[in-house]
Amino acid sequence: MQRLYHDQPIPEELRGAVVALGNFDGFHLGHQAVVSRAIALGFHLRRPVIVATFDPHPVRHFKPDLPPFRLTTLDQRERLFAHAGADAMLVFRFGAELAAMDAEEFVAEVLVKRLGAAGVVTGDDFSFGKGRGGDVDLLAKLGQRHGLKAEAVTQVLIDGERVSSGRVREALVAGDPWSATRMLTRAYSIEGVVERGDGRGGAELDCPTANIRLGDYQRPAYGIYSVRVRLEREEEYAGVASVGIRPMFDPPVELLEANLFDFSGDLYGRTIEVGLHHYIRPEMRFDSMEALAARMREDAAEARRLLALPA
């Protein structure tokens, strides 16, 4: 999987590709349908397939003060696109230049001239160009004018409602990772580098944790989760994690703290990906550290049960 940027030359072997065009944050069922159709079209036309995404998210450009809302990092999207069967990921660095570009210029100058695209596939709600002035109908008309085959994939429904990144975020905020998993087809996962904490988990609670920052990720409901943690070499461990501000400790620090079951070793400085599987309970303040430690043991036992592990 190659990572390309829209303002850099495209390798000759990838010119003439079919481009799946969207933001694809989260890469949920609707996004997967778009990329799947692009791959099928690429196979039919004997062309490579590029999945295009935007970073930063266009919303962040226009509303820089919004709270974090990303569902995936670029690294995560790259892996997901590769697993789906694409040949490359193209990153549109969204800024003033792209924000000011009208729809026709985007098609003619970027898709046709710069990328040499043979086809483009989007969702049926895709909009583009200055002021979001372009839609799938205009894309089809412009594509016909420039010899670019354009297709739009219809919406994917779950329980009669359209699958969307917004619905995934709503489920996470509501403490409903199961619904998020249905739409994503995998657990919502937060990836980060393990940092050294204050040592309280290991020293006072006999529960060493791997601590990572939440960064630009959408904040799920604060609380305790059963998790599966993936390490760099594709090793995976079940565990229990706390997401939140640790109300028992001062000063409050927003962290994801994961305790990996049946793991021994040093994780400091390593990149881990923590998948949230079940919401166990909200964050709480306890009367003593002993009471907190007792409840953490209960949480670990419940996580084992929910993940179908031996007690």
Compose a concise summary of this entry.
The protein has 311 residues and is an alpha/beta fold. The protein has helices at 29-45, 58-62, 74-84, 96-100, 103-114, 136-146, 165-173, 177-184, 200-205, 289-306; strands spanning 2-5, 18-21, 49-54, 88-92, 119-123, 149-153, 157-158, 161-162, 188-193, 210-212, 223-230, 236-244, 255-260, 271-281. Helix 7 (165-173) runs antiparallel to helix 8 (177-184).
Order of helices and strands: EEHEHHEHHEHEEEHHEHEEEEEH
Number of helices: 10
| Alpha-beta classification | alpha/beta
Cα Rg: 22 Å
Q: Could you estimate the helical fraction of the residues in percent?
A: 25-40%
Task: Give the termini distance in whole angstroms.
Answer: 41 Å
What is the percentage of strand-forming residues? 15-25%
**Segments where pLDDT lies below 50 for 5+ residues?**
none
Main sheet overview? 6 strands, parallel
Query: How are the strands of the biggest sheet laid out side by side?
Result: 1-4-3-2-5-6
Name the shape in a single word: elongated
Number of strands: 14
